[in-house]
Fold this sequence. Notes:
alpha/beta, 7-stranded mixed beta sheet, 14 helices, TRMT11
Amino acid sequence: MFVCFLPNNLSTLGQIHLHEEFRLPELESLAKIEDVKLKYNNEEYKKNCPFLVINIENEEEAARLVKRAILIKNIYELWGMGETYDEVHAQVKACPERWSLYIHKSFKFTVSGFGSTCSSDYQVRIINSFSYLGFEGDIDLKNPQVQFGVLEDYGLDQHAGIPPPTPYTIYFGRLIASGNRDLVQKYNLKKRKYIGNTSMDAELSLIMANQALASPGKLIYDPFVGTGSFLLTCAHFGAFTLGSDIDGRQIRGQADKSIKSNIDQYNLGDKVLDTLVFDICHHPWRENLWFDAIVTDPPYGVRAGAKKLGRKDPIKRPRVVDGVPAHKRDNYYPPTKPYEMSEVLIDLLEFAARFLIVGGRLVYWLPTIVDEYSSADIPDHPCMILISNSEQNFGQWSRRLITMEKFKENVEGEHANVNNAKSLDNMSLLFQKKKEGKSDEDGKDLEKTNDNNANKKPGHYLFREKYFSFKSEEKTKREQTWIRFTNKDNANDCVDNADNVQSSTKPPTEISLCENQSDYDAKEPS
Length: 526
């Protein structure tokens, strides 16, 4: 039996959690990559707890499981656990045959608490309580032959930031292996030669590579490659990668900074095969099962406008220049038109169904409006099965990391389904309410009415318009808050100056600041 320590990325202020929903999908993916038989009680897993007890056949498989993990910090062979140290010591003493293996080895003890801090004196006292183990080897804090850990879980349901006096659960075990979080720093965007405004951060890129089951010999494709973050992280784990994008400017970069400069920086030239310029809707791939995985971040139309080849007005005829149709000239650039998120998803799933091998994975980001999201919003396809759906929340909107696996051959005539994305309405009721200037209460009524409506739009429909609507509201609120603070400060200045003037020898008729107060009152928002 082993215990995994899954870091919660705690901030020193406020104990902010990141990526809790990504931990189990990565763990399951790593087990599949390494062919490790993994058992755990799913009901015991809690997002606000970084510890998970798992069953693995042996120590070697435990080490393989976490060697490339991003969200698993350590894995321990569990010697004892309980609500009190008496319970832990009783379990440890019940298996003395374990101790003899480490009697003469150099060792190290660590004591750590989740949701609390442990003073030096407290740590020493806890370590001394295990003196009955009788280890005779040297204490080596830098390179011990064996390391033991005491892990205390105080939880996060604290009052006024004060942890409980005693931990809820205590774990004690021998450290088997640690995850590979050093990769996050290696591929950190700040250290990369070439990035863009849509570059995915290193941690999430590496998690996606794990969930795509990237490994030596596999071929992984990114159809919206941008600045190529996924090409690097998937190639790091041994896969051959290639990408394409409708915008060749992002691929080429500027001067000596481009995707190629990143490939050279990380010495991945033998793994990243190429980057191509074309539209996923108008691609050159022959009908075949080419790819082991597709890993991508589709365009939301927020930081970079989502476009595909085509004319906004399909009736409009191509121009003729000097008697030659424009599209036959050497300097011709094909026209583009907006690419709505629901259309992007349909094309992406259709492409994956046609070109992924059976067992291949599609890993992509789905942006959505939090209040409008439902599980039915996840696009599906008859030959694809949903593996995981993990949310990264940003307040009013979020993005979801969707992992799907192709479980059967694609059948001609079967198509992707994106939950009524193209019904008669042109926008969701909530967004329509905001555009018409209706009150929040009206909006809530509209949402309730629409809950069971078959024509309800998915949370990602018209995402770009909704996103900028939120941004506009936030800007207005900030401006109004600034005006209020400005008015308050000037009003205080007016009173202070009035007091000063009246207490001086100058007559009240010389007071001018108070005359301006009406101007500030007129600017105060209602």
